[in-house]
Amino acid sequence: MAESVSRRGFLGSAAAASVVGTVAVAPGRAWADSVPPDRIRLSVNGKAYEIDADPTVTLLDALRERLGLTGTKKGCDRGQCGACTVHVDGRRVVSCLTLAIACAGKKVVTIEGIADGDSLHPVQQAFVDCDGFQCGFCTSGQIMSAVEVVAQGAARSDEEIREAMSGNICRCGAYPNIVDAIKQCRGDH
Amino acid sequence: MKTYDFVSAGSIRQALSREDASYLAGGTTLVDLMKLEVMTPAHVVDINSLPLRGIHCAPQGLRIGALERMADVAVHHEVAQRWSMVSTALALSASPQLRNMASIGGNLLQRTRCDYFRDVRMPCNKRKPGSGCPAVNGDNRMHAILGGSSACVATHASDLAVALVALDASIRLQDRHGERVIKLADFYRLPGDTPSVENQLRPGELITEVIVPACDWPQAYVKVRDRTSYEFPGLGGCGGRRALGRGAGRPHRGRRRGHPAVAVAGRGEGSAGQAGDRGELPGGGPHGGG
Asked: From A21, A89, B107, B145, which residue has the greatest number of CB atoms within 10 Å?
């Protein structure tokens, strides 16, 4: 009983009602001719979606409110905290300052899309191993940033890692363990 | 956010066909300010498909397509070798996510970070001409010590613009009537009595390219800010030839060489405009040295 009325379950079912359905869509910019103005086609974590949203909807709100992908968090909602970090065409961006409609034809990857089935992504595993979080609110954004930092490999010293992760704020102050997690992914530990 | 029509331009000609449109590149300024309803365009044109990319290094200089992203220019090897001031200014700007998003052209057109400008409940001569400037006597620690006026003491927030002015860079502009090339130093306007007019850009005109001459003198870009990372500049300065940013309504370039490039960040009432044009840095306004 209690499970059936959990907050997330309730919100999730409400969100699901606004998902118009998933359809197979070839990526591209021809959408402008074939999609009504209040419908947006998105590719998220390898799946094609067509959602009911006007051009003012941000990618963040599309993910959370339309697709029920609530792993991406809304912190400041003005591009300053990094909690909403996702990847668009392989680059980390803040989804709160990204318009959903501008992502048509692009590949969006969120925290829900980086694990391989039940196997955590190495960066996810490293955050678990190193206690790279406390309350966890910023963690999905931290991990999405860390995935790019590890893949680029340019940040070597602790100082460089901190600079490369400076777009993600953690108010609990888990920074030392986040640095450790990134070093673990590089095989330093 | 106020509603708007949205189209994705397939060609430069198509993008330039609407003079009343706001152009979307990285969106880090436009989307932010549309959410705050500081900007309320009726038409938004996505220009990211336009062929305005490319970083071209040649003996005579550097050309950067306006849609190149800050992050890509910042790590470009030859840019870092020959125009280190540009690389450094970009690397010290914003956050990694925002540098992945923001375009070079958009960086040069970003709006001021003045909190009064960003709050639609407040008067602001830049946002609403004639409504007044609370910053002149208000919370103005981060406002202009050079080039302000009684109507506006907002600063230009771009690090890159300071480096480009020091390097004597130009920008190529295009509208449906044709192209023109203008020195970046001449592009920005001081606020004077009309702070809402920030630059020479005409309605329906796009920055298409940044053109930087070859540079054979040592360069450095120094940024003074409240935090060591992810913070707008309190003051930005370039060595070699000198340009001074953020402390000013537009990037200033000193005319004499051999003087220190950077003064301490100080606050002032923005009445020191002519000092910057003489290549002299005031020690701070009446509240100075803060």
From this structure: B145
Q: How far is B94 from chain A (nearest CA, A)?
A: 8
ipTM for this prediction: 0.86
Residue extents of the structural domains in chain A: 3-112, 122-185
B247 — pLDDT class (breaks 50, 70, 90)? low
Residue B271 pLDDT greater than 70, yes or no: no
Q: Would the CB atoms of B32 and A145 count as touching at under 8 Å?
A: no
Give CA separation, A132 vs A81, A152, B163, B203, in Å: 17, 20, 37, 49
According to DSSP, the residues that pair with B238 across neighbouring strands are B221, B243
**Cα B231 to Cα B224: distance, rounded to the nearest angstrom:** 10
Query: Can you identify the CATH homologous superfamily of domain A122-185?
Result: [2Fe-2S]-binding domain (1.10.150.120)
pLDDT in tens, B73-114: 999 999 999 999 999 999 999 999 999 999 999 999 999 999
* Common-topology check for domains A3-112 and A122-185: no
Collect all residues from B whose CB is shorter than 8 A from any CB in A: 1-8, 10, 24, 27-28, 31-32, 34-36, 44, 46, 48-49, 71, 75, 94-98, 100-101, 229-230
Q: Which domains does chain B have, with CATH numbers?
A: 5-277 (3.30.465.10)
Q: Residue A82: CB partners within 8 Å, gap ≥ 6?
A: A75, A94, A138, A141, A142, A145, A167, A168, A169, B95, B97
Class of the CATH-defined domain A3-112: alpha beta
Q: Is A79 close to B4, i.e. CB distance below 8 A?
A: no
